[in-house]
Design a protein that fits this description.
88 residues, mainly alpha, 6 helices
Length: 88
Amino acid sequence: MKDKKTAALLAIFGGFVGAHRFYLGETGKGIFSILIFWTFIPAIVGTLTGIKWLLGSDEAFDRAYNSERIQREQMDIQRQTLEALKNK
């Protein structure tokens, strides 16, 4: 599960080379950031994105970057519940 604070800090301090994009599995965007780092655009966007994540809700971040994991966990809970009901 990707951590919001880790991603935000990587965006703020390593956004100029797309460190947060690599962390979140967005390799293409990370490589693009490296290619254009000299324009300072990735640094500005990374800083703003990091601040947005720090100020935003955990739920919004999880929906965007942890949705597959959340779905898997929900399916596991449902499976365990069904098994518990069968064993009664």
